[in-house]
């Protein structure tokens, strides 16, 4: 997780420095509800080095077939890359996958028992993380699948320790489930075949993280949080059909209706460092 060390260091620094700066806090309990906002930065996705395309040449919904030329050679022997292809051959290279902004709304409820704080938090938001994988055929041609989180909802538990004057500081762990709408795109330099995608899909998974929160008076709190998200997002499919290609086309040799292809790596994983602000009641 590329940002976890920096995020953890920032949380520790804020926890150490805010005790004196905000000594005016008068609320001695975290029990109650809150609504708020979060915003931050998403790291580039955790790419699997083995991510590639896998194929179903006879359309029996079982993936793992090899697309072969009329001569029996592997039509995708040039290989694959994590990222978006920049040309029809591997020599053109691939762009790196990237992160971006992370933002949304949140709300929840906390209970305090002594110094222990337990709670539940729900979030709804979006981010700009973008993940692609590309394949190269012997034609030559490139094929690229993109996926992006359009919006995401999460429900998590959190448990932490309140400390300092008036128990105004809180460090915590959080974890729970997440559901996202995934935007899928497909591009290719192959102009002979037809290509049909199954559109946008959903991803289910989990989140886990660590955070620090500080009360500023009775009704406002601010914090820092690092959150890791793992979604199962393997539903993108592309049907490569006949188009104007002859029957000897590698995608049509086994089944004249075409070949289905998808990514081999179903996991869509990324980390985010964010700031939070909450209005408590």
Keywords:
mainly beta, Porin, 4-stranded antiparallel beta sheet
Q: Level of helix content?
A: under 10%
Average pLDDT score = 90
Query: What is the CATH first-level class name of the domain at 4-48 and 99-131 and 145-242 and 263-280?
Result: Mainly Beta
Radius of gyration in whole Å, from Cα?
24 Å
Strand and helix order:
HEEEEEEEEEEEEEEEE
If helices are DSSP runs of H or I spanning 4 or more residues, what is the number of helices?
1
What does the main sheet amount to?
8 strands, antiparallel, barrel
Q: How are strands sequenced across the largest beta sheet?
A: 1-6-7-9-10-12-13-16
Could you give the count of β-strands? 16
Outline, from the CA principal axes?
A: elongated
Write the CATH architecture name of the domain at 4-48 and 99-131 and 145-242 and 263-280.
Answer: Beta Barrel
Structural class: mainly beta
**Euclidean distance between termini CA atoms:** 35 Å
The parts where pLDDT drops under 50 for at least 5 residues are 6-27
Q: Into which percentage range does the β-strand content fall?
A: over 45%
């Amino acid at each position: 997780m590329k940002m976890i060390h920096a995020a953890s260091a920032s949380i520790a620094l804020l926890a150490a420095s805010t005790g004196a700066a905000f000594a005016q806090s008068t609320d001695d309990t975290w029990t109650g509800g809150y609504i708020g906002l979060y915003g931050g930065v998403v790291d580039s996705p955790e790419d699997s080095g083995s991510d590639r395309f896998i194929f179903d040449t006879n359309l029996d919904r079982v993936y793992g077939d090899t697309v072969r030329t009329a001569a029996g050679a592997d039509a995708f022997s040039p290989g694959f890359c994590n990222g978006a292809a920049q040309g029809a051959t591997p020599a053109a290279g691939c762009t790196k996958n990237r992160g971006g902004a992370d933002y949304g709304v949140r709300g929840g409820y906390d209970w305090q028992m002594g110094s222990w704080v337990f709670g539940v938090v729900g979030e709804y938001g979006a981010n700009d993380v973008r993940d692609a994988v590309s394949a190269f055929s012997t034609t030559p041609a490139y094929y690229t699948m993109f996926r992006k989180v359009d919006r995401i909802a999460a429900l998590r538990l959190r448990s932490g320790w309140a400390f300092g004057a008036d128990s105004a500081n809180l460090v915590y762990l959080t974890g729970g489930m997440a559901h996202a709408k995934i935007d899928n795109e497909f591009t290719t330099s192959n102009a002979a075949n037809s290509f049909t995608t199954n559109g946008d899909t959903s991803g289910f998974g989990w989140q886990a993280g660590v955070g620090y929160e500080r009360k500023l008076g009775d009704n406002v709190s601010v914090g820092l949080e690092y959150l890791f998200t793992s979604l199962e997002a393997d539903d993108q499919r592309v049907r490569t059909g006949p188009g104007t290609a002859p029957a000897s086309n590698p995608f049509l040799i086994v089944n004249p209706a075409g070949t289905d292809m998808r990514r081999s790596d179903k996991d869509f994983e990324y980390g985010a460092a964010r700031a939070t602000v909450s209005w408590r009641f």
